[in-house]
Design goal:
The chain is α+β, with helices and mostly antiparallel strands and about 170 residues long. The protein folds into 2 domains: about 5-10 and about 85-155, PH-domain like; about 15-80, no CATH class. It contains 4 helices and 7 strands. It has a 4-stranded antiparallel sheet, covered by helices on one side. Strand 5 and strand 6 (about 120-125) form a beta hairpin. The two termini are about 30 Å apart.
Length: about 170
């Protein structure tokens, strides 16, 4: 298991910051954008044709869904990024240790698909993770740690086909 190398303590305001960024990330997905575009068009058509019940339904979807999702995200973040919550990371040749107030996991280098940095957070995309990413504060994965992770991900062994050639 990798030794702890970086630590981070959540501050007041981190719950709302993490929650806003998570909600924005959800609503930037193409499928979600298309879904809301269809609902918005249906809302306009319902209002234009005088269908008050349908207009109310689509209005609730357009306003209520993001609001309900934000409440759920805030509740989750209150457990992991409440003020004083301790996070830690460590890196070695096997993988990355990630500790938060709820769990301690080691992510093997072979599991990491890509790494993104946005708004002070590092997003670690995992193979087979259905587009979801582990998000951690940038201070837990500073540039030198990201460079090391990327070098290990690029250096991981490639699978070999039965004929002996690399794939």
């Amino acid at each position: 298991m990798p030794a702890v190398q970086y630590t981070w303590t959540a501050q007041p305001g981190d719950v709302s910051r993490f929650s806003r960024l998570a909600l924005l990330r959800v609503f930037r997905r193409p499928k979600v954008i298309v879904y809301f575009a269809f609902v918005a068009v249906a809302l306009v058509v319902a209002v234009w044709s005088g269908e008050e019940e349908l207009a109310a339904l689509f209005g609730v979807i357009v306003v209520g869904f993001p609001l309900a999702l934000f409440v759920v995200i805030v509740r989750v973040n209150r457990t992991t990024v409440r003020p004083g919550a301790q996070w830690a990371t460590g890196f070695n040749s096997f993988g990355m240790l990630l500790e938060d107030p709820l769990a301690q996991i080691v992510i093997g280098h072979g599991s990491i698909a890509r790494i993104e940095v946005a708004h002070g957070l590092v997003y670690l995309y995992i193979h087979g993770g259905m587009g979801r990413a582990a998000r951690i504060p940038e201070s837990l994965c500073p540039p030198e740690a990201r460079a090391y992770l990327l070098s290990m991900v690029d250096a991981r062994p490639r699978s070999t086909s039965p004929g002996g050639s690399s794939t």
